[in-house]
Write a structure and sequence with these properties.
Layout lengths: L1 E5 L6 H4 L10 H5 L10 H5 L5 E4 L11 H8 L4 E4 L4 H10 L3 E3 L1 H6 L5 E5 L4 E4 L2 E4 L5 H9 L2 H9 L2
Parallel strand pairs: 1-2, 2-3, 3-4
Antiparallel strand pairs: 1-5, 5-6, 6-7
Helix pairs in contact: 4-5, 7-8
C-alpha cells in the first residue's frame, strides 16, 4: 500500500529524470532526482517507499531512456498507474521489474494522497474503498516483475 502522487497527461521521460542527470547509471543518484522537473521537487521531499505514481494519458513519452523507469523504481515507487503509457516506457518498466497498470477509471478517480493497493495478477487497483479494473498481467510478466526484471528472470530460468 502506498500514497498516490498524481500527475497529468504526457509526463515525459525528461520530467521523470531530467537529461542533465543522464551522465550516471547509479540508481541512487537517479532516484535522488526522480520527478524533479515534474513537480518542482515535491515528490523528492515527500515521497515514501511504497508510494504509487498515478497519471493521465501517455505517461513516459519522449525519449526511450531506460533511466526513467530505473529512477522511479530506485526511488521506491511500488507501481505506476496511468490511463495509458508510451509503449517503449511500458516495455522498459517490465524489463527492469517496475509494476505498471493501465486503468482509465483508477487514474481519473484517485487523488493525490489517496492510499492505493494493487494486484497485478488480478488486474485490480483499490483506493478509497473502490476497486478498479486494469489489464491483469499474464503469468510470464508477473514472473519477470517478481524476479526484479528481465535479466534476473532469465538468469533464474537458466539456473545461473
Amino acid at each position: 500500500m502506498g500514497k498516490a502522487w498524481k500527475y497529468g497527461d504526457d509526463v515525459n521521460t525528461d520530467e521523470i529524470i531530467p537529461a542533465r542527470y543522464l551522465n550516471t547509471s547509479d540508481h541512487d543518484e537517479l532516484a535522488a532526482h526522480c520527478m524533479e522537473d515534474a513537480d518542482k521537487g515535491a515528490f523528492l521531499k515527500g515521497h515514501q517507499k511504497g508510494d504509487v505514481i498515478v497519471a493521465g494519458k501517455n505517461f513516459g513519452c519522449g525519449s526511450s531512456r531506460e533511466h526513467a523507469p530505473i529512477a522511479i523504481k530506485a526511488a521506491g515507487v511500488s507501481a505506476v498507474i496511468a490511463e495509458s503509457f508510451a509503449r517503449i516506457f511500458f516495455r522498459n518498466c517490465i524489463n527492469i521489474g517496475l509494476p505498471i497498470l493501465e486503468s482509465v477509471d483508477a487514474a481519473r478517480a484517485i487523488s493525490a494522497g489517496d492510499e492505493v493497493t494493487f494486484d497485478l495478477g488480478e488486474g485490480e487497483i483499490t483506493s478509497g474503498g473502490k476497486t478498479y479494473a486494469a489489464e491483469p498481467y499474464p503469468k510470464e510478466l508477473q514472473e519477470i516483475v517478481s524476479a526484479g526484471g528481465l535479466l534476473p528472470y532469465v538468469k533464474a530460468k537458466r539456473g545461473a
